[in-house]
Design brief:
This protein is an all-alpha fold. It has helices at about 15-35, 40-45, 55-70. The longest helix is centred in the first third of the chain and has 19 residues, at about 15-35.
Amino acid sequence: VPGHGAVSGWPAALADQRRYLETLAADIRTLVTSGKSIRAAADTAAAAERSRWQLFDDFHARNATAAFSEIEWE
């Protein structure tokens, strides 16, 4: 997107986001299967990704709770 940094190679530019989302989904599925709460999902799912995302603390809890809400009905 013009004005948002250097042009990145495609599809490599999406590798970090894909890893985060796949990790989040896998962790949420494990939590749901083991009967953990949505709060536990926000606190622990994809925690290993925290150091890789500058705005992790601003957006992760919402991502985790939305994912939990969807995955618990799979």
